[in-house]
Amino acid sequence: MSEKTLEVVETARVRQLWHLLEPFHALLYYAPEVEQEMAALGYDTEDRWPAYFPLRAAPLGEVGPERVASAFYSFGPRMVAEHMERAWGIAGPREVLSARLRGIDRAYRAVLGDRVEGADLVEAAALARRAAESAGTGGRPLAAANAELPWPEAPHLQLWHAATILREHRGDGHLAALLIAGLDPVESLVSFAAIGAASVERFRSRGWSHEEWTAARERLAVRGLVEPDGTATQEGRALRRRIEDHTDRLAAAPWQSLGRSDADRLADLLGDHWVAVLSSGLLPSESTLGIGKV
Question: In terms of C-beta density within 10 A (0-12 exposed, 13-18 middle, 19 or more buried), how is residue 276 classed?
C-alpha cells in the first residue's frame, strides 16, 4: 500500500466532496434531456415523481413498492406505491437504465459543452472512479445495485456513474445513522425540517399527510427533540449533528482509499464543472439533503 493511501482525509473534506459531487448525480432528476428520454418510454414527465422513482430504482431490478420504500426510506409508502405499482408496466429496468445514460450523456454535453472532452474532466472521472470502486457495499443496497452495473466508456459518463455510486453509498450510510438515532422515515424529515435544513413544504412533498407529519412531530416532542411549534430543541439539534457526523464517518472509506492529496486534487478539478452545473439553473434552490444548511 502506498503512502498516499494512508493519508487521512478529514470528515470536512468528505462532506465537501459530497457537496461537489451531488449536483453531478442530481442532474438525472432535473435535466430536460433525461425527461425527454423517459417521456419517449411512456412516463409522465409533467410532474417530477413518475420518472424519479423508476430512474433511481432501476439498478435494483424489477422491485416493488415495499422494497423501494425501504431503500429510499423517507418517502411516504402511499406515494411510492402510487408510482412504483405501474412503473415497470411502462418500461422495464433495463430500458430505464439505458434511457438514463442516454439522457445524462446529452445533459452533460449541454451543460458542460466542450469540457466533456477536456483533460480536467478525464482526470476527475478517473479519480472519482477509483473512489467509487473502493466503496464497500455491504449493507448498502442502492450503492451495491449501482456498483454492479457496467462502467460506461466515456469519461463524463464515468464521472456521473461514480458520483451516483458515491452518493448512494453515503445515502445508505445515512439511513443507518437515522436508524441508530431511532428516527423512523417521517420523523427523520420532521427533525431535519426542525433545524431549518429545508422548508416543511419541501419535506412534506415526499408524500406524508398532515396527520402523519403532526403525529411524528408529537412523538419527537415527547422525546424532547422538538418544541410544540416544530422547531428543534437544543437536544434535537445535537441529535441531528450526531447523525450528520456519523454519516460523514460512514462515507469516509472511499476517500481514505483515494488519499488526501488525490481527494484534494479531485476537489480542485471539479470546481469549474460544479459551477457550470449549478449555473445551469436546472437544480432546485432548496433541497431536502440540507446541503449548505447542516
Answer: middle
